[in-house]
Amino acid sequence: MARTLSRSIFLNSPVNRSCISLLNRSNPNLTFPKYHSNLSKFSNFPLVHSSMDAPPEGYRRNVGICLINSSKKIFAASRLDIPDSWQMPQGGIDEGEDPKVAAIRELREETGISSAEVLAETPHWLTYDFPPDVREKLKHQWGSDWKGQAQKWFLLKFTGKEEEINLLGDGTEKPEFGQWSWMSPEQVIEQAVDFKKPVYKEAFTVFTPYLQ
User: Fold this and answer.
1) Residue 207 included in any domain
2) Count: domains in the chain
3) Would you say 159 and 119 are in contact if contact means Cβ atoms under 8 Å apart?
4) What's the predicted TM-score (pTM) here?
5) Cα–Cα distance list, 3 to 33, 60, 94, 117, 173 (Å)
6) Residue pLDDT, tens place only, 17-73
């Protein structure tokens, strides 16, 4: 009940009521650097520390979702809490939850999207470390001190219509994103926070056959 009450207060506050109309559409005025697609270059980056069977100790289990449309562009959204930072959907895996089920759930919770099919997944857990300030912030938020996150990445194809995209999500969680756009892999990496870039590069390397 407390979780539901806090969500209601957030969504109905004067500030957030004025912002809700911005959350449900892509901004046609957004501009990003243009790149010639060259996914093969990602293979030159060093591999991120990973484990075939299980994530390394001290890292929070997480899923990442690379959602593509019929034009093979990737869904990315701007974070409400980090200015000028864009990312692909991601989220924690619940106790006993299958990672693929978690990916579908997180996509729905964060974007409202349920019309998608799973095409591929990374064979390894890909990890990134939190910068010290981020680690300290999340320690208080989560009540646990994680070194970083170990992610299993899934490639999904969007099969619905864009009207389905709703950054208020499915109403079960507080909104995380402000705007969304379809981007090339290079644009996604350019707009991401630095500590996530290596994982993004490695995920795109695995998914290259589907992105070309």
Assistant:
1) yes
2) 1
3) no
4) 0.79
5) 40, 22, 17, 30, 9
6) 334 344 455 654 565 554 444 554 444 444 444 444 688 899 999 999 999 999 999
